[in-house]
Amino acid sequence: MAGPTRTCVGCRKRAPASELVRFVVAGSWDDFRFQPDPNRRLPGRGAHLHPDPACFAQAERRRAFGRALRFTGVADTGPLAEHIRSVSMPRGTTDDQAARPDHDPAR
Ligand SMILES: [Zn+2]
After folding, report:
1. How far, CA to CA in Å, does 8 sit from each of 48, 91, 92, 104?
2. Cβ contact 55:31 at 8 Å
3. Separation of CA 70 and ligand 1 centre (Å)
4. CB 40 within 8 A of CB 28
5. How many whole angstroms from 7 Cα to the centroid of ligand 1?
6. What is the pLDDT of residues 79-106, one digit of tens each?
7. Beta strands 75-76; 31-36: pairing state
8. Rounded CA gap, 42 and 40, in Å?
9. Distance, CA 96 to ligand 1 centroid (Å)?
10. 67 contacts 47 by C-beta, under 8 angstroms
11. What is the DSSP letter of 90?
């Protein structure tokens, strides 16, 4: 019935793994980034986050990304932020409506 659950590094709540975005650290030397892994295929240690900008912000403020991945260096959160933004967009919204994800009176 219930699939595997994971803890969101933002709000620290447990949720089905299928509802969370997996991400890993990718890169080399001094050029690292947090890489979203929507297909759950990338090797290495992964951490999980709700596809929600609020969870992203919480995790970033607490520096939870690196800690969850046991990564002590500096990594770019840009690719992950982009991914969260794109998947948290209201459904049915396509390219031309991308500017104001917050303003959604229909919800
Ligand atoms: Zn969360």
Report:
1. 5, 22, 26, 25
2. no
3. 19
4. no
5. 8
6. 999 999 999 876 655 555 455 556 556 6
7. parallel
8. 6
9. 28
10. no
11. P
Residues (pLDDT < 70) of the chain are: 1-2, 90-107
How many angstroms separate the alpha carbon of residue 17 from the centre of ligand 1? Answer: 12
Q: Which residues, in sequence order, are CB contacts of 26 under 8 Å at separation 6+?
A: 32, 33, 34, 35, 42
Q: Ligand 1 centre from 38 Cα, in Å?
A: 16
Question: What's the chain's length in residues?
Answer: 107
- Count of helix runs (H) and strand runs (E) in the chain: 3, 6
Ligand 1 centroid to Cα of residue 94, in Å, is 25
Q: How many Cβ atoms from other residues are within 10 Å of residue 25's Cβ?
A: 21
Strand partners for 6: 15
Task: Quote the ligand 1 centre to 103 CA distance (angstroms).
Answer: 21
55 C-alpha to center of ligand 1: Å?
5
